[in-house]
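A reminder from the course coordinator: this example appears on the midterm review sheet, so study it carefully.

Given structure:
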């Protein structure tokens, strides 16, 4: 589906969120999982930001026509992965594509959807795209397979009550860092930060974690609001309660906190959406200049964070 990049009309496309990392080299097998598990200290984090460690796929659940939830077992049942809010992980795998004479090590970032303090497991939600080497590989994994992890990589060091309101604009799998932050805030009754989410997708069937998001909104009506946008609703939109078509500046104004001290907007989605909403990150993966609709609406670079 072609991206329509326009500051006043933003196309909601599901796509893998975050920066893309790629390393080319001859594939090398990860250390045996059993060896790592035998040495694991249940009191310490399962993962390390400076070392690749293999985790075994313990469960796999299909969420939509092209998305899955993958649950990886940590070495010990009471062990935590070592995540913070907000942070992501890197995964790597030796993959051989058409025309490759040897496997290449592909590295990608993912934000887990399990709570940072979850014990014994780490969950990822992925969309398997036909032309996405890593996502296709993850979608084809079977229970018992292993995958190498490294992390966490801290993105935005969230602190309780540092902000009054957080607005979130997510597209597709860009929901994963938003879910990590929102759930962390809402589970803490001493955190008074309010959260509003504008979540864009191609269709209703593409909306990831919708039941989970709706339950959050129902449980915290004064602290969390969500508004969905799809490119085209089914049944002519007769049963659809969200918006259809493009995400416009009017929608952003209606569902995000206004620019100001104590308010922050998080953005995560495919490159086309990032460019239209906030501008993409710089080539070195720093925040880069603020542009797009949020700049036009008066937000400052300090008031926007790009995942």
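Designed residues:
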């Amino acid at each position: 589906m072609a991206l329509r990049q326009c500051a006043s009309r933003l196309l909601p496309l599901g796509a893998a969120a975050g920066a893309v990392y790629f390393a080319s080299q001859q594939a090398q097998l990860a250390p045996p999982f059993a060896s790592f598990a035998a040495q694991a200290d249940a009191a310490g984090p399962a993962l390390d930001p400076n070392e690749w460690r293999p985790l075994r796929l313990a469960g796999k659940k299909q969420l939509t026509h092209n998305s899955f939830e993958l649950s990886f077992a940590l070495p010990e049942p009471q062990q935590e992965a070592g995540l913070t809010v907000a942070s992501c992980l890197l995964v790597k795998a030796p993959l051989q594509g058409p025309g490759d004479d040897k496997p290449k090590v592909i590295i990608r970032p993912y934000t887990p959807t399990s709570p940072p303090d979850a014990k014994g497991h780490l969950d990822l939600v992925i969309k398997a795209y036909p032309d996405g080497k890593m996502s296709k590989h993850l979608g084809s994994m079977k229970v018992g397979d292993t995958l190498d992890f490294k992390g966490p990589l801290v993105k935005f060091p969230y602190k309780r009550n540092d902000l009054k309101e957080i607005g979130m604009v997510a597209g597709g799998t860009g929901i994963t860092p938003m879910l990590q932050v929102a759930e962390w805030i809402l589970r803490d009754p001493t955190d008074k930060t309010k959260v509003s989410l504008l979540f864009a997708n191609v269709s209703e069937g593409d909306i990831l974690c919708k039941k989970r998001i709706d339950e959050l909104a129902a449980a915290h009506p004064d602290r969390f609001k969500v508004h969905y946008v799809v490119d085209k609703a089914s049944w002519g939109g007769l049963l659809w309660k969200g918006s259809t078509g493009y995400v416009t500046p009017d929608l952003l104004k209606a569902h995000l906190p206004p620019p100001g001290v104590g308010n922050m907007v998080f953005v995560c989605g495919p490159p086309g959406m990032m460019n239209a909403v906030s501008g993409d990150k710089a080539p070195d993966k720093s925040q880069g200049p603020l542009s797009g609709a949020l700049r036009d609406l008066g937000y400052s670079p300090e008031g926007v964070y790009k995942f």
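Residues 1-42 have pLDDT under 50 and may be disordered. The two ends are 23 Å apart (CA to CA).
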